[in-house]
Model the fold of this input.
Amino acid sequence: MYKNNPYAKIKENAINTSTPEELTLMLYDGAVRFANQAIIAIEKKNYEGANNAIQKTKNIIREFQLTLNMKYDISHELYSAYDYMHRRLTEANMKKDIEILNEILEYLKLFRDTWKEAMKIARASK
Done:
């Protein structure tokens, strides 16, 4: 499979050699990318494509929820935020609502950017 697709092999190597923090950032980037794809698909009336992109976004958010360490107070707050985004994405998918997708996209960007900043702070303190 990878013989014919060098990009896939490079991507696999990047994933396999990344730290957990970098993998989390990759997931946030993916969620942002898929939410953008869903918006574009709806604008083009490609509802199957929109559904696929929204499902991918929801899967990433669900992964974030499932991997939270619930012994920390912040995890409970994050769980609620992720749950809200997941429910809104379901609604956006049913209604093909770009406004809802834009709302979730802003949250995803905020979470991603906050994660990037936390990574910088953690690296600087080492």
